[in-house]
Amino acid sequence: MSSTDIDIKEAHSTSNDHDTQKAELHEQHEVFKRGEGQVDFRTVSWIRAGVIFVKIIFATGVLSIPSLMYELGAFPGAVNVIGWTLLNTYCAIVQGNFRNAYPGCHSIADMAQVVGGPILKEVVGVLFTISYVIVAASGIIGVSTALNALSHHAICTVWFTFIATIVIAGCASVRKFSHIGWLTWLGFASVYIAVFIIVIAVTTRDRPAAAPQTGDFDLGYRVIGNPDFATGITAAATIFVSSAATSAFLPVISEMRRPKDYPKAVYLSMSVVTASYLTFSLVIYAWCGKWIASPSLGSAGTTVKKVAYGIALPGLIVSGCLYVHVAAKYLFVRILRNSRHLQANTAVHWGTWLGCVFAMASISFVLACAIPIFNYVLALVGALCFAPLAITLPGWLWLYSHANYWKGSIVRKTVYVFHVFLLFLGIFLAVGGTYGVIVQINAAYRDGQISSAFSCADNSGSS
């Protein structure tokens, strides 16, 4: 063997040793360890992770976007769907790359600590918890709306909301994302089939179910809408939030078998979501115009509405379950991290976990009763919480990891400036969107769309 061959062999061996050491060091920083006597949380494949991601963001968006097309118009609405989903996909990849570079980060709050210290961590942690509690409230509203539709409003809506909360909390109490995995398959399929039924149903009617059934009527289809600022920014914030729950992807990475497969799961989920949002919302809007219901499953008449809600009910429950689970898992890890109880079947472990789940569900119940209009709940969480979490903070994470780009070529400086722009885009959407939602909610109370908080009226299905 020549000296050159020996040198190559030694270099290869050194490289392998370095990779092994790097992998071991990476493993030491993972939140959930692998070892005997510990509950193994890291059992999620990338395909199952992709389905979980789809279910986290799909149900609320596909039920809300069609009714927003009338406010914005078909073309601006489609541009908003494509633009926001592409941006949210990119920001999800940024977050995942940062997490894999710092494997000790279980949540977006942990990442905030890396770039901004403990105070920023607490601020982001509060935003993260609030955001998923509010989105869980939208899931509760969806389930209570379905129960109202199936029962002809047999009991007070508050009771249906309470029942929805108990069912969602029960499902959310399952500890591992891998064990929720089979529920996400069922949930995604049920909502997808239900919306597909609505698409077929509206295209076979002579006129929308909510429109006058005799005489002339205005369909209200507009290629380009003419909303005022409050209406337009609320609609944009609602479309944005339909794919903005990317911070919920991060806890799933900590439970993946191979965290490096995370980008595959993101691209799979976002491709399905974008295609579905565009096709379903544009077709329903083209046939229903301004007569679309919100949530959109009520757009094809009473009978079809019952069928659609009956099929979609498991999916709506799973959506609420995932949101409560994500919020509870964040608190659970914060409380028990670096404790033996984090991965041990002890009374402290189970007491903390169930306490977190039912506490988050209880707060969501109160919010669902206080703001029972589906689109406004989504717009509020989009502006107030997800804009800084899903746009501003990922921009900051990238700038932290690529500070040298500012001293590079013109192309690198341009990329750097784009991420600075993300900081301000998130701030603008947070301030403008929150203002718009508050104006819309006040108008809804004034006009009687919302009768009162904790009312028995079925406000959630308002068009």
UniProtKB/TrEMBL annotation:
Residues 43-438 form the Amino acid transporter transmembrane domain. One of its GO terms (cellular component) is membrane. It is found in: Membrane. GO terms for molecular function: L-amino acid transmembrane transporter activity. It comes from the Eukaryota. Its main location: membrane. This is Amino acid transporter transmembrane domain-containing protein.
